[in-house]
Structure formats: C-alpha cells, structure tokens
Amino acid sequence: MDSQYVKLKHQAAGHAGTLSDKDGILVFKPTVKQEIDFLKESQDRYYKDTITESTDQDSTEVLLGAWMPRYLGIIEEGDKKSSIDGSISSVYSIQRTKNEQPIVDSLVDFDTDEGNSSANDNVTMKDNNEKPFIVLENLLHGYSKPNIMDIKLGKILYDENASPEKKIRLQEVSDSTTSGSMGFRICGMKLQKNHLISTVSKDHFELDIIEHDGENIEYVFLNKLYGRTRTPENIQEAFELYFTNNDLTEKRKKQLITMFWQRLQLFYNTLLDEEIRLISSSLLFVYEGDPEHWDYNQDEDLLLKPDFIDKEVDSDDDDNGTVEKERKYSDVLSSMSLIDFAHSKFVPGEGYDVNIIEGVEALLKIFEEMLRQH
Fold first, then answer.
1. Coiled-coil regions in this chain (predicted)?
2. DSSP readout, 10-79?
3. What is the pTM of this model?
4. 269 vs 262: CA distance, rounded Å
5. In the 8-state DSSP scheme, what is residue 212?
6. How, if at all, do strands 19-21 and 334-339 pair?
7. Residue 187, helix vs strand vs coil
8. 52 CB-near residues (< 8 Å, 6+ apart)
9. What structural domains does the chain harbor?
10. What CA–CA distance (Å, rounded) separates 44 from 32?
11. What single DSSP character describes residue 246?
C-alpha cells in the first residue's frame, strides 16, 4: 500500500495540520511534550484502574480515560525505524493487551506519494514545521454523516507559561465571549445543512460538499466568529441549531439531547474525582445524521464510546476467533469526548478543576432547558 495521508475530512475547530490515514481510522495531530505526557499518564491510570475495578460490579465510577481518545503513540519526521501505512491491520500486527505500551512508539518519515497526490487532500509531515505528531484514534471513524461541535471549556484560556501578551489577548477573548460569562465557548461546528442555517449571519458560516459512498452531502462549517458572538441569551439557539437535522425525526433529536445530557452528568462526576487542570481543552460532540444508520442500529446508542482496541479487534473476530460478517454500520450513533491537552496536567493534592466545572454546570442547565422544551 502506498503511504498517502490526507487532511482530516471533518473538523469543527482546532489548528490546521491534523491528518488522517486513508481509511479514516487514525488521526495524526501536531503536539507538544505536555500533551504527550498528559495522555500517557491518563491512559496508564485508566487501564490500571479499569483492570482493578473490573471485578467490582457495583462500581459506577467513570474514569477520565473513558472520555479521551485512545493514545497510540507519537511519530516524528526523519526517523525511519518503523512505518505506518494507513492500514489498521498493520497497526495491529503486533498482538498486545490493553495495559501494554502504546502501539506506535517509533518515529517515521511521513512523505506521501507525489505521483498520486491531490493538491487539496494529500499532505506530508514536512508541511507542518517538523513538530512531532501524536497518533490517536479517529473519533469520527464509523460515522456515515457525522455532525460535530467543538466546545472549549473554561473561563481561563491560558496557563502560567503564556507570555504577558498572550495572557492579555486570551483574557480579552474570555471577557468578551461566553468563555467568561458561562465557562465555555462554542469554537466551531460542522453539520449537515438544515433549515435553521438561514437564521445565521453569512459571515459566520461557509458551505462545504463532502462525498460519502458516491453521495455529495451538503455540510455547513460554522466558524469561531459564530461562537464568539453567542451570548447567555442566545446560546441555547446554537445548540438547537446543532441538534436540528432535516433527516432525523424529532424523537431521535430528543434521544440525542437526552444522551448528551446524561453524558454531561457522568462527565461532571468524573471531574469532581480528578485532580487535574485543563486549559483550552474541549468537549467534542458527534452524532450520526444518516437515518439508515439509525435504522440499522434500531435507534440503540452507547452512552460511553467503546474502547478503541476492543472495537477494532471485535470487528475482526467473534468469540470463537473466526471472522464475522462485516457490519454495515458501527454500534455508535453519538459520542462525547474530551480532547486537546497541550496545556493540561495532573495536580495531586490541589482538588478538582473549578475552571472547568463551572462550564459543565452551565452546559447541564442548557440541556435541562432543552429537554423541557422537547
């Protein structure tokens, strides 16, 4: 297989430069050491505690790692000790257990095949200033028509290492947006075009056509200006816009709102048990907009996303070790994940993160009001 990597097809917000393999299973994102350290420690704690608690059937605790994308390792341009070819079978060629080291722990050259490249899609690592890339599960894998929202958490948007100029700039952003007034801000959305888009200023969105299985799907990308112009008075309208889908019934819309409300409750309890500081981390909301996928799953959804390793292994083998007939669709109709950890750290003995908690409390109130209205 040739080594082609493409820009992430669906992205609601975040820095440019996020890549995916051709099969859309993995994500490669420019990173820094602090993010790598936080992901490693979070994952180590999660799988250690998961093994410990697996015998406790009465445990209702949801650990931090359950909300995070699976960390698979780092790659960096220039070291050719190993390679990743975009095939999930090659990534999992080494048999492993959950609590072993990350699958990808070596450094590779990330060039693409120029002869087969598209100027818009195929990219190389050299386009990204030679930063190390972190390898994560693609949280959109398995969705046919994903609808995405990125919600940045916290009133404080900078850490102690930021320059004075950056602190001033980010404090101004917080003071002038719902980051300051509510503890969160919508950074962006990418959703299927719906009838409520006509109510949005043309400066706040652009249209995008995404091809899926031979079908051209009309998407709308709502930019950071949309999120920065939301207020406590109109913020609920933004969530109504996100959950409005011309292809889904009102019953399914209410199911989605209920599921995300329940996830926020569980996530809130998780945060109360964690001594961490999350600066500029986000909640990533995703739901399926394809009614055929809903029909196939008979509207059954999972409150927590399945473990990435278990999900991929189960898709290949049944309990007897034989190959199953491939499912047409994944088990997941929606998910909520915590992402972006470049400024995150553990702070033992300092208690939970009030900066993040307040934003989640505000989100819970919005969802409770939405449920009353639906």
1. none
2. --SSS-TT-EEETTS-EEEEE--HHHHHHHHHHHHHHHHHHHHHTT-TT-----GGGGSPPEEEEE-TT-
3. 0.82
4. 11
5. E
6. unpaired
7. strand
8. none
9. 5-137 (no CATH), 146-373 (3.30.470.160)
10. 19
11. T
**DSSP structural state of residue 324:** P
Residue that has been written with the tokens 């341009």 in this structure: 77
Count the Cβ atoms, other than its own, within 10 Å of residue 230.
Answer: 20
pLDDT in tens, 113-153: 333 333 344 444 444 456 788 899 999 999 999 999 999 99
Q: Is 270 within 8 Å of 62 (Cβ atoms)?
A: yes
Cβ contact 160:190 at 8 Å: no
Q: Please state the length of the chain.
A: 374
* Max Cα distance, the chain (Å): 60
Q: Determine the Cα–Cα distance for residues 124 and 245; give it in Å rounded to an integer.
A: 35
Q: What is the DSSP letter of 276?
A: E
Return the percent helix, strand and coil in the chain, to nearest 5: 35, 20, 45
Q: Give tens-digit pLDDT for 27-75.
A: 888 889 999 999 999 999 998 876 655 444 445 689 999 999 999 998 8
